[in-house]
Amino acid sequence: MRITAIKTEKVLPCSTALTAFLDRSLQKFPERSVLAISAKVISLIEGRVAPLTEKKEALLQHEADYFLPKKFRKSGATGTITHHAFIGASGIDESNAAGHFVLLPQDVQKTAHTLYRYLQKRFGIQECGVIITDSHSTPFRRGASGIALSYRGFQGLRDYRGTPDIFGRKLVMEQANIVDGLAAAAVLAMGEGNEQTPLVLIEDVSHITYQANAPTKKELGEFFVSLEDDIFAPLFNLKRLKKGGKKLEKKLC
Predict the structure, then answer these.
(1) Helix 108-123 and helix 18-25: axis angle, to 10°?
(2) Is 69 helix (H, G, I), strand (E, B) or coil?
(3) By three-state DSSP, how is residue 192 classified?
(4) Helices 39-46 and 108-123 sit at what angle, rounded to 10 degrees?
(5) Per-residue pLDDT tens digits for 124-141
């Protein structure tokens, strides 16, 4: 597998269109490759930002599906669940944001589909993949790593269930998360500081199945586990989690 981070221009809120940004930034895209793109650059282009005069606590509560009230927090960390993931502060960020709070994109699955069609048309290819990435924290680990908010063009899970292990025993539970594995590698290449590389080209990916209609609604339902079915849900102590309100529409353009 080859992973190439792509240096781009600085992006200000509402300063360009997403496809125009990619026209200037992406010079090649081989067949059967995957494009990983940071959610932040999509949000900036979409104008999903709020001024720093807004109260961040109010923003994160409106953007979250669940959040941990202040009295249960430690070290100022803000635990929230949004976009089917445990992401701090609802993904709201101030870094590399030109003096704004940057919220997560409005509809990541729709954007992934748009990017998938764009890559096919512009580069004349049939099989490709798109991942929209963000950073999150892992329980019992320090530091941020990458996670996928959405994907398009390939199957997100590799299912080993029913296949034999090296001793012939049939596997029962094993499924490999292809999407988040690629997202973690891509975000590592992107960096978390001033690298200015929100795009990553991933080539020669093994164990990936490209599929024109992937992910289907059924696959998304299997990939994103509900809170009720998640094996880690008891660790979150759901009595301390309060449901967020109606999401605010924060859009400049």
Answers:
(1) 40
(2) coil
(3) coil
(4) 100
(5) 999 999 999 999 888 788
Cβ atoms of 107 and 11 within 8 Å: the answer is no
Extract the tokens encoding 86: 């445990």
Nearest to 73 by CA among 237, 227, 244: 237
> Which residues, 6+ apart, have CB-to-CB distance to 113 below 8 Å?
152
Compute the distance between CA of residue 60 and CA of residue 6 in angstroms, rounded to an integer: 30
C-alpha torsion angle, residues 222, 243, 63, 51 (rounded to 10): -170
pLDDT of residue 131: 98
In angstroms, the CA 186 to CA 87 distance is: 17
Give the integer Cα–Cα distance in Å for 172 and 162: 6
55 by Cβ neighbours in 10 Å (0-12 / 13-18 / 19+) ranks as exposed
End-to-end CA distance of the chain: 38
pLDDT band at residue 86 under the 50/70/90 scheme: confident
d(CA 16, CA 53): 24
Q: Give pLDDT tens digits for 31-58.
A: 999 999 999 999 999 999 999 989 888 8
Gap between the Cα atoms of 147 and 136, Å rounded:
7
pLDDT at 88 over 90: no
Where are the extended beta strands (E) located within the chain?
Answer: 2-6, 33-38, 49-51, 66-67, 80-82, 85-86, 100-102, 128-137, 144-152, 157-159, 175-177, 199-203, 242-243
* pLDDT of 27 higher than 90: yes
